[in-house]
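seq as requested:
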Amino acid sequence: MHKDISKSINNLPTVSATIKQYNLFANKKLSQNFILDLNLTNKIVNLSNTIENNTIIEIGAGPGSLTRSILLNGAKKIIIIEKDKRFIDPLNILNIASENRIIIENHDAIKVDLNDILEKYNVDQAEIIANLPYSIATKLLLNWLPFHNKINKMTLMFQKEVAERIVAKPGSKKYGRLSILLGLTTNAKIVMNISSSAFIPKPKIESAIVQIIPKKIKKGFNKVILEKITQTLFNQRRKQIKSTLSKFGDPIKICQLLNIEPTKRPEELTLDQYEKLTNLITNYQDL
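struct tokens:
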């Protein structure tokens, strides 16, 4: 980043002072918790080595702690999706300091189609970096699936329990719908744990950073069917699949076609087996 821009950003009031200046407070209904320590936000941003000269999409920037670190690491452009109007003025000040590298979309992220954002601003490649509002984090992630081929990486903060479900392996208690949907479409790993003491106000739960890199989606991938399968099976996760697969046809026939033991439970099936199961149910009516 240009030295003058770095200097302008570093000369701004601290995030803590900005919060006081604009009389900002964390809105519990919007799952807001602020990180004021720029050393920590720098560590989070440094987990990605592709920020420089890249376009970054940030969800829920709040008073701009993470945004400052993204800018200081050389982002070409940051597209911020921020629902809370209270943060627009301080983010505009940050935009001026960055010489207009920030675009602010004052909308609810749940209602925003990322494909429209990419097209609107003519973005070739982008990365998502965000401290996601925990109340909508899982829903956002599932809404984005399968990821647009212009999204090359995500560095996202979740409550730790959700992060562990995202990366869970077959056979574990935390393996479920989220693990399967993300496992078939991305490579995901936990890259950092964040203590609750890092936030203002301090939440009751711990957090973790998950880095997610989209896979090339195989032809014929059917998200809708996969979601129906995982929802049906994991809503009764203690039952054997010879019982729960009946919604999709003859369970024994389905298991025979896929060479799966009908006595298995949902958490015992591999990602490959879920992929084959989805393809079978998508393409064959007479089951």
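The longest strand covers residues 151-159.
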